[in-house]
Design goal:
Helices cover 6% and strands 34% of the residues. The chain is mostly beta strands. The strands form nine sheets. Strands 1-30-29-28-27 form a five-stranded antiparallel beta sheet, with no helix packed on it. It has a four-stranded antiparallel beta sheet with strand order 4-3-2-31, with no helix packed on it.
């Protein structure tokens, strides 16, 4: 085991004067949709309501999912997208996207929703002043799955991504299929070759290629670029990102065409300005009314992703771009200039020696808050943090909830929202939590104040001198 076996959970750092104070919702593993206050107190649990992700709506409603397709035949195929009230009553449900008849399973309708969805009234699914998602009407945009074969990509079965829109009654109004736009993504020949042989094959359903793996989808909403005449950024257009391809792209709602993108390559201008974005999650346009509005915010995971040339770390050409730390990037979509970032260096780590301490190679998210702070889910380690524009860590929470099967305390995505959105409980007290001095913290029975044997070595050589002696010794060996 290479990670610490003991570490604190719950809220470990909290500066009320510098935070955007409110509640935070996330999926507490198998337990359900959990709302916590700033001190880690648990304000509400919707037990058994799962979230991919959970989203709280004003008035104490929450959206999540119930039921999942058997992993023998599907991957991350969720059955019912539901909205429940404070008491857990289902007030809206959708599942009639595809009628599934898997061998040995009960035939059933499924939404096949995964990773994201957006309710009309709010383009991104998190708190934006003046943009409240509708709770008793309105359309819903859903990120879904569809099984198909696309000879242009591969002769193998694909687990393709779709985006579709439904009205309140569940009628499908619009649909977009990712593989139909393969030529728009700009893959080089080596990538096309490896995609043909191995489009990220998964074992479910006898083998399916999860070639793109979209993991976020949102609308652009009103923005300055559209108002300046740039039609690529029409408010109804949709931004999504492909985890396996390192691509972030915008599609026209009107035509379905890809009208803007970065990736899959970052070795030439203009993408070179960004550095390599790898395995990213939660790419979206910061909505109007929030600091940085109009810029793209993304959790750039690092890890492994992409298709292309072979090398020792990727002998087949799959997952051929690698980096062992994460970044959060905010950049201008018209110039691709980085406006703000949180990398290991800004996080106070020795870069690159200690960079892997800020690292989540999968899941994760970033939310811009009204006070200019950013809420970040460093998902694989169950860590949620709030940092200021100056990179000060002002809130930290580590989930204590571990899965029974997938033994991690991971948090897929977390959202902050105001206290008044759930009027059913009184706002909590806000108690400052100072960072713990880990150099003096000990478990019981391991106190540094206990008796110990000490010895001083005479003539100890300082580190700098020792290094110099190594060089001298090296020269002496060559005489």
């Amino acid at each position: 085991m290479t990670y610490p076996s003991i570490y604190p959970t719950g809220t470990t750092i909290y500066n009320p004067k510098k935070c955007f104070n409110g509640y935070t919702v996330f999926q507490a593993k198998e337990l359900g949709a959990l709302v916590i206050d700033m001190n880690g107190g648990e304000a509400k649990l919707w037990k058994g309501l799962h979230g991919f992700p959970n989203k709280v709506l004003k008035g104490g409603y929450v959206i999540g999912h119930t039921g999942e397709r058997s992993t023998k035949y599907g991957m991350q195929d969720l059955r019912d997208l539901v909205q429940v009230d404070w008491d857990g009553n289902v007030v809206w449900k959708f599942n009639e996207y595809e009628y599934i008849e898997d061998p040995g399973e009960q035939p059933q309708w499924m939404a096949r929703v995964h990773h994201d969805y957006q309710r009309e009234g709010n383009p991104v699914g998190y708190y934006v002043p003046g943009m409240e998602a509708k709770t008793d009407q309105g359309n819903t945009m859903i990120l879904g799955h569809k099984n198909l074969v696309c000879p242009q990509i591969s002769d193998k079965n694909l687990l393709d991504d779709t985006i579709y829109e439904i009205n309140w009654d569940g009628d499908i109004l619009w649909e977009w299929v990712c593989s139909e736009h393969f030529d728009s993504f700009g893959f080089r020949e080596d990538a096309k070759n490896i995609l043909s042989r191995d489009p990220n094959m998964r074992p479910c359903g006898g083998g399916m290629g999860d070639w793109m793996h979209l993991n976020s989808m949102s609308l652009l909403g009103p923005n300055k670029w559209d108002e300046a005449g740039d039609e690529r950024f029409h408010p109804d257009n949709i931004i999504a990102d492909g985890r396996e391809t390192n691509i972030i792209f915008i599609i026209s709602k009107k035509t379905g065409e890809v009208v803007w993108k970065v990736g899959p390559y970052y070795d030439y201008t203009p993408e070179k300005e960004l550095g390599w974005i790898i395995g990213q999650h939660h790419a979206h346009m910061i909505p109007r009314g929030l600091p940085g509005e109009g810029n793209i915010l993304v959790y750039d995971n690092g890890g492994w992703a992409g298709y292309g040339s072979i090398h020792p770390a990727s002998p087949t050409g799959t997952k051929n771009v690698l980096r062992d730390y994460s970044r959060v990037l905010e950049f201008d979509p018209t110039t691709l200039k980085i406006v703000w970032q949180l990398t290991p260096q800004e996080a106070g780590l020795v870069h690159p020696t200690d960079s892997n301490r800020f690292y989540s190679p999968f899941i994760s998210s970033a939310q811009r808050l009204p006070n200019g702070n950013t809420l970040i889910s460093e998902g694989s380690g169950g860590r949620i943090i709030e940092v200021t524009a100056d990179h000060e860590l002002v809130w930290e929470y580590i989930s204590p909830y571990w899965g029974k099967n997938f033994k991690m305390n991971m948090v897929y995505r977390a959202y902050r929202f105001p206290y008044e959105w759930i009027h059913q409980v009184d706002p909590p007290d806000e108690i400052k939590i100072e960072p713990v001095d880990v150099t003096s913290f000990r478990m019981p029975g391991a106190s540094p104040k206990g008796p110990r044997s000490e010895v001083t070595i005479e003539g100890t050589i300082p580190f700098q001198t020792s290094a110099a002696l190594c060089v001298i010794s090296d020269r002496d060996d060559k005489k």
